[in-house]
Amino acid sequence: MNSFMQTIALIELSITSAVVLVLIMQKLTQQEFPLIAKISLILLLGNLFFWPLGLGMELPLAAYIRGVTGDLSIVLTLLLWSSLLPSSKTTPIVFKLAIAIIALGFYPFALGLDMVDPYAWGYGSIAFLIAVLVFAAVCGLANWAKGVWIIAIAIIAWAANWHESANLWDYLLDPFLAIWMLFALFGMLIKRRRAKAQSGYLFRPG
Amino acid sequence: MSRVIALCFLLLAAVIGFLHLDSRPAWAPFAPIAINDPSPVEEVLEPQPVSKSKNTIVPIKPSIPSPIATWLPDTGAASVHAASLIALKDGAVRAFWFAGSREGAADVSIYSAVFDPRAASWSAPTVVIDRVSAETGLSRYIAKLGNPVPSRTADGRLQLFFVTVSIGGWAGSSISSIMSDDEGLTWNKPQRLITSPLMNLSTLVKSPAVQFSDGRLGLPAYHEWIGRFGEFLRIDAGQVIDKRRMSSGRSAIQPLVFVNSPQEGIAFFRQTRSSGQAKQVPVSQTQNAGQSWQLAPDLPIANPNSAVAGLELNNGVRILVLNNIETGRYRLTLLMSDTKSNQWQVLEVLEDDEASPDSNRKEFSYPYLISADGNDAHLVYTWDRKKIRHRYFSGAWLKRANNQLQTVETDPVTKEVQQ
User: For A115, which of B10, B193, B245 is closest by C-beta distance?
Assistant: First the structure.
């Protein structure tokens, strides 16, 4: 079971690393690749990350990344993977804002600011599970079905002990997801300011 | 339509989630302290020179053997640290420690050796795990290895918790564990314990685990990055299934837990306070078997930001080994307290290099205590980072020391602190 879990974790991280590289390539070339090209690239890069390459390295590339990042949350993993789908909608701003606010409130306390430890709720708190389900239901009511699917899969993965952690938080949130959401929010704010400034310039009287 | 299907799937996830929560074990009380040999402590006869005259034979006077002092076997490494012990089923004692060219170097491995109490000698050291086997087993890059802490699971297997670092210094640590079915001769693949939401960074172990009545372990751990605080991990085999904060902020690490009753426990810490604050042993206590911890007044014993080791004997007497000075680690002291008076008194100064100039003083640190039979005490500690010292105090010696402390009016250790 332990070996299976380790292999699955490395496969997940290899695919995620490949997806991130493809997203970066798309950003740099400023064009969306055709689906077949994306799949081919992910297969190629994913294999490069997963298999030991030698060259003086004791482990596959994904294992070096895992040494630093640990296992990524299911939510981040699925958000990244699904972002390459052709009909992928952008993540709603409300979801980004909610994740950013939760992360800013969560991490200081989880890292020892006080005797209150919200991270401990993830081991066996019914109230916390209900809160997560309500959050997912709100995503559904706000017409973001992908969010519902992703959170539901994260809960099932936690119940199935998919990763090494027995804590629901680790399936829902990680620092990279929090940073991504924070940067996305800042990026959006800067874009809006620029747009506002430009429109103000164009329509400035006299 | 897709939204309805998604919400139905969420409902399924909710049911699975609630079933998972329902299957989780309830928090159990602390187990009573394990007693390997419930026989009362008897004074051991040590051969004495017998004086004979022509017609009279002087009977052998019963005496108590002095504590034994040995060294853990040399690994050839320049630097050794963080020794720990566990009693084996055959009465022997197995030690673990890490050794390498320097603390935190990539060549550091975790070693083990067995102490034979009959021969009073150690076996040759063997490597339990090195950096490469750790990273292969854990399927991730490991830069260095650290503190090993052994424990025994409810099914009788040995479990060794050890610290690994992938990035940065000790603040970037995580805990992993390995199991042995043959008392430490061979070990299975390591498993990672997940204890922190921030890339699982900065959790370490130093002190022995306590047992719950359901056979699970309560492992005192601590964080060193951003916050410096203690945490109580509830372990089921190789997985953390719950954890509770024992302190907060940046002032206390390396908790040592004493169990008072099935529900009550007390933890002593190594203080890491900023200058100007009391350099004493911080304390937390629990009234519900570790589910919640409250800060308590300091133990009035000096602590120079160094580890504290402790042990409770079958007769309720507790002993501590620590550096009872405010700066440096040049003095290591054995203290004793009984449950009635709760007063700690210095029993013996084990090491003292105060006479040496400041810059040349040796360091005696990282003590670790266990009992093989519930009455005696084995102690190991780092001796100037070059060697690991082992001291053995028999049950009879400790009993006599306790009797002497109760009959002789000695200064409580609080006076020691004020010096």
Answer: B245
Contact (CB<8Å) A166/B226:
no
| B38-47 CB contacts, 8 Å cutoff, 24+ apart | B38/B314, B38/B374, B41/B315, B41/B375, B41/B395, B41/B396, B41/B398, B41/B399, B42/B396, B43/B396, B43/B399, B43/B400, B44/B394, B44/B396
CATH class for the domain made up of B79-245: mainly beta
- What's residue A6's pLDDT? 92
B28 close contact with A: CB closer than 8 A: no
- What is the CA B58 to chain-centroid distance, rounded? 45
* Interface predicted TM-score of the whole assembly (ipTM), two decimals: 0.91
Q: Is B399 helix (H, G, I), strand (E, B) or coil?
A: helix
DSSP code at position B359: G
Residue B168 region by backbone torsions, left for phi larger than 0, else alpha for psi between -120 and 50, else beta? left
Bridge partners (DSSP) of residue B230 are B222
Global confidence as pTM: 0.91
Residues 6+ apart with CB under 8 A from B319: B310, B311, B313, B334, B335, B336, B337, B347, B369, B377, B398
In A, which residues are within 8 Å of B10 by CB distance?
133, 136-137, 140, 148, 151-152
Residue with token string 């294999």: A47
**So what's the pLDDT on residue A56?**
79
> Helix or strand or coil: residue B95?
strand
Show the DSSP H helices in A55-166 as ranges.
Answer: 61-69, 74-82, 93-110, 121-124, 126-141, 145-159
Q: How confident is the model at residue B227 (pLDDT cuts 50, 70, 90)?
A: confident
Residue B120: its pLDDT value, please?
93
* Amino acid of residue B105: A
**Closest approach of chain B CAs to the CA of A46, in angstroms?**
16
Distance, CA of A107 to CA of A105 (rounded, Å): 6
